[in-house]
């Protein structure tokens, strides 16, 4: 390229990023401490043309190239001081991508050419191997698409990985498996509808990198939480069909799911970036304005409150604007129904956590974002990072207390009925304050991070050797129970007890107050062979095994979801009071003992095993028997019948008594016509 043939005009400072207006492209980049910025253009041969951005308005460097078209590859070289103690690491030898990139030419490979974390600036030019930003312009016909707008109280979340969900599905064309298009395939749409879930929560689809350590071990960051370009769609989940792009295929998927009445929530990562610690690659924010975008110690190193090497400084106006602009892009341009925020305590750090932090306040006051489903993972690993129950309305939160306590209740027998009831009632001890609603508790037994449900009842210990860390990674506190034999293979008696436990956990999840989240594959009996940290396993280990799916368990789970939708106490957005409700003219909940009488304070506190009866909306009776033996209960009235999908072997009913099998949960429905 020859600079003499290229004219660059002043352009405008907003919007940030690169934008094609039909006549040319405007470029705008924020850098508070830069001294000058070069826009670098690359042709098909990789030859570079450097153009000095001519204007800086309120720390935004900008320029306009008339006549340029979408598809142009570019990057930035940013000049400024090098003073690590001040947090300044400007080095024009490092080509940097646009933080607002909608697409990149490639991913970064592990190379010392990208490293720039030492005491002095690295002299190696990185342009040859660094990814380049691409100017994009993709109008899309949404064809009157509307968001399903499912009320929180009626929401059933289904957490899935784009690739893992469909990669082995035999009824989806091989060319589509593991892609956005596969999720939109009629086979998957029909499956999700039959299962009854309302909302698909996808692990990150933002463009991410494989960490250097994983590259050296020939592994990949399968989960995708090492995000480089949060505005850019991950191209690895694209089918590459003619006439499509990664973004258009993703939009097609969203539109198709909406037509089926299913919402789409994205797992987003703003707590850290793929630049990792100071030894990691310098690709974007570190070289653009390190001190503005990252929390730093006095010596210039990063505060690592994420465990990933760096923590984004989301109190700085530019960093906050970056997050808000990104969320608006996914909401407005991709019609996303909501977001789950990874390590969301970082969003509230000032640096101490505050539910009224500038960014959280902006999100909950935003006229677009505040109307979407917002879910926080309410912790990070820094001091004061565990913030369950402390996020502002309308945020919901992943409730790990529900996960751990319900596992301990069913698999260890070490939890009192009082604690069980508290978790069952949307963890009111944690969430019933500050106008928060029961749906704020996102109840889960499993998620992508940890054992699958089948592994939870089959392994006492993690088996993560395939991750290359000598089984040191992953949690050691799983509250699992292998029922006497370690591993998937066991005798019929052991398998039967495991099945009962798995069904009890599924029933507890889907029949509790709050918002249930089902991990994709748990309804099929999917296993990861005891690996409880399969973040780097892009293989059959982490993909759903559709060939061996347990059809009975799928039907059982679908029946549970259908049953949940029938019970008013589980689908209305109000805290249980034990009082008569106007809707059903009956109490929302009654807690009854083995004799069918109200539970006494002493009974709630007892540690020994005893069954519990939970009467919901006056006509649905949940029988909870976490004892090791069969129990006979006196029912509060007569004319009860077993409710599908529950097997008759779990409970038998005669007049006003029932016999519940060990370690089981069952549901009875009262036939009021014959009372």
UniProtKB/TrEMBL annotation:
BP GO annotations: glycogen catabolic process
Q: Which CDD domains match?
A: AmyAc_Glg_debranch, E_set_GDE_Isoamylase_N
Give start-end positions of Polar residues composition bias. 474-483
Q: Where is the composition biased (Basic and acidic residues)?
A: 463-473
* Renumbered residue ranges of the record's region Disordered: 463-486
Q: What UniProt keywords apply to this chain's record, in alphabetical order?
A: Glycosidase, Hydrolase
Q: Which Gene3D superfamilies match?
A: Glycosidases (3.20.20.80), Golgi alpha-mannosidase II (2.60.40.1180), Immunoglobulins (2.60.40.10)
Hydrolase as UniProt keyword: yes
Q: Which one of the record's GO molecular function terms can you name?
A: amylo-alpha-1,6-glucosidase activity
Q: Which residues form the Glycosyl hydrolase family 13 catalytic domain?
A: 159-564
Which family, according to the similarity comment?
Answer: Belongs to the glycosyl hydrolase 13 family.
The name on file for this protein is: Glycogen operon protein
């Amino acid at each position: 390229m020859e600079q003499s043939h290229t004219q660059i005009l002043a352009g405008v400072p907003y919007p940030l990023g690169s934008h094609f207006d039909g006549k040319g492209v405007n470029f705008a980049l924020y850098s508070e401490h830069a001294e000058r910025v070069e826009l670098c253009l690359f042709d098909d041969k990789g030859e570079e043309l450097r153009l000095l951005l001519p204007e800086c308005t309120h720390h935004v460097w900008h320029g306009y190239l008339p006549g340029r078209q979408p598809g142009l590859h570019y990057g930035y070289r940013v000049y400024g001081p090098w003073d690590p103690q001040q947090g300044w690491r400007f080095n024009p030898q490092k080509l940097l991508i646009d933080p607002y990139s909608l697409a990149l030419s490639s991913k970064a490979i592990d190379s010392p050419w990208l490293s720039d974390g030492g005491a002095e600036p690295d002299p190696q030019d990185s342009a040859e191997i660094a990814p380049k930003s691409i100017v994009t312009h993709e109008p899309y016909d949404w064809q009157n698409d509307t968001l399903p707008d499912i009320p929180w109280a009626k929401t059933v979340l289904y957490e899935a990985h784009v690739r893992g969900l469909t990669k082995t599905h035999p009824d989806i064309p091989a060319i589509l498996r593991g892609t956005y298009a596969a999720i939109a395939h009629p086979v998957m749409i029909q499956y999700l509808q039959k299962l009854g879930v309302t909302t698909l929560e996808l692990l990150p689809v933002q463009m991410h990198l494989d960490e250097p350590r994983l590259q050296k071990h020939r592994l990949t960051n399968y989960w995708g939480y090492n995000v480089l370009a949060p505005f850019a769609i991950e191209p690895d989940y694209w089918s590459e069909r003619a006439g499509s792009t990664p973004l258009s295929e993703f939009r097609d998927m969203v539109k198709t799911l909406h037509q089926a009445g299913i919402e789409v929530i994205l797992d987003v990562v703003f707590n850290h970036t793929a630049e990792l610690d100071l030894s990691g690659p310098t690709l974007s924010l570190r070289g653009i304005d390190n001190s503005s975008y990252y929390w730093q110690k006095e010596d210039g190193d990063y505060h690592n409150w994420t465990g990933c090497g760096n923590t984004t400084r989301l109190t700085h106006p530019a960093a906050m604007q970056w997050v808000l602009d990104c969320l608006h892009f996914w909401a407005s341009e991709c019609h996303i129904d909501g977001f789950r925020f990874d390590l969301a305590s970082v969003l509230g750090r000032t640096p101490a956590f505050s539910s009224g932090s500038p960014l959280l306040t902006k999100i909950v006051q935003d006229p677009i974002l505040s109307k979407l489903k917002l879910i926080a993972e309410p912790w990070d690993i820094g001091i004061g990072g565990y913030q369950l129950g402390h996020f502002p309305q309308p945020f919901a939160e992943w409730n790990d207390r529900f996960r751990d306590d319900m596992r301990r209740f069913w698999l260890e027998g070490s939890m009192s009925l009082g604690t069980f009831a508290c978790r069952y009632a949307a963890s009111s001890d944690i969430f019933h304050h500050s106008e928060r609603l029961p749906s704020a508790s996102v109840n889960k037994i499993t998620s992508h991070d940890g054992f699958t449900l089948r592994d939870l009842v089959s392994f006492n210990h993690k088996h993560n050797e395939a991750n290359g860390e000598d089984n040191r990674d992953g949690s050691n506190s799983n509250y699992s129970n292998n029922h006497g034999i370690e591993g998937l293979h066991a005798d019929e008696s052991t398998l039967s007890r495991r099945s009962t436990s798995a069904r009890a956990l599924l029933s507890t999840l889907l029949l509790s107050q709050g918002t249930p989240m089902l991990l994709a594959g748990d309804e099929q009996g999917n296993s990861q062979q005891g690996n409880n940290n399969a973040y780097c396993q892009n293989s059959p280990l982490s993909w759903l095994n559709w060939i061996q799916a347990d059809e009975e368990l799928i039907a059982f789970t679908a029946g549970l979801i259908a049953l949940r939708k029938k019970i008013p106490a589980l689908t209305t957005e109000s805290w249980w009071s034990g009082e008569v409700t106007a809707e059903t003219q009956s109490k929302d909940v009654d807690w009854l003992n083995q004799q069918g009488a109200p539970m006494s304070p002493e009974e709630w506190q007892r540690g020994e095993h005893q069954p519990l009866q939970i009467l919901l909306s006056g006509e649905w009776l949940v029988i909870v028997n976490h004892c090791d033996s069969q129990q006979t209960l006196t029912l509060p009235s007569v004319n009860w019948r077993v409710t599908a999908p529950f097997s008759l072997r779990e409970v038998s009913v005669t007049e006003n008594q029932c016999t519940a099998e060990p370690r089981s949960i069952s549901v009875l429905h009262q036939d009021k016509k014959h009372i």
